[in-house]
Amino acid sequence: MRSPDTGITSTAGPGGGFVREACPPRAQGTLTWGGPGWLGRRWPRALLPLLLLGGLGLAVGLALALPLPSYVQARGDLPDETAVLEHQVQGLRCRGSATLFTHLLFRDDLEAVGGPLRLEAWPAPDGGRARITYDPALTDPAAIRRAVLSPYYDPADDRLLLSPFSIEGHDLLQDLGLPLPAGDR
User: Fold this and answer.
1) 50, 87, 104, 142: which sits with the fewest CB atoms below 10 Å from its CB?
2) 37 — alpha (psi -120 to 50), left (phi > 0) or beta?
3) 95-105 helix and 141-149 helix, angle to the nearest 10 degrees
């Protein structure tokens, strides 16, 4: 027996009770392929995959053109006037090495860098890129490079370890003001 209001059919079920069939007959406005009604419902089926591929291509293009750092750490609040130091860093290969880079940059020993700092890093297998924002009134680029390149103490092993990083175009001896060995000139 079909209800004229809802279009749902009831039939006699087991035990004499009525069972309603939940699926009404197909009517206008059910799920179909196509765009919004105001743009017209007749869109080609290939349009959706093309739109998805175009959106994916745009996202990849923007990610390559405007790369975001994959590692960011800050210490303190930066003032309005800051300076930025950018370097290619050998040894900055992954998040773990970026964490060690941060540890060296924020160290609290004789090579400590004063003032607030912000590190943005783009680790890569062949060496990454680091951007360090700092307060030029409290520190300078040579102090930042010394902090990253100087040996550091590892309390777990109770020994002094050499920094695994090297900054392209800079040498720790130069930053310390020492003469380079004769073979490195």
Assistant:
1) 50
2) alpha
3) 120
Is residue 147 one of the residues assigned to a domain? yes
Report residue 47 CA to chain centroid gap: 31
pLDDT along the chain (185 residues), means of 10: 57 58 60 65 77 94 87 93 94 92 90 91 92 94 90 87 87 64 58
Tokens of 137: 């009134």
C-alpha to C-alpha distance for 143 and 109, rounded to whole angstroms: 13
Residue 18 lies in a domain: no
Continuous H helices in 2-46: none
Tokens of 157: 């092993």
Secondary element (H or E) of residue 132? strand 128-134
CB 107 within 8 A of CB 147: yes
- Give domain status of residue 62, yes or no: no
96 part of a folded domain: yes
Residue-number span of the structural domain to which 101 is assigned:
71-184
Q: Hey, CA dihedral for 74, 80, 83, 87, is it positive or negative?
A: positive
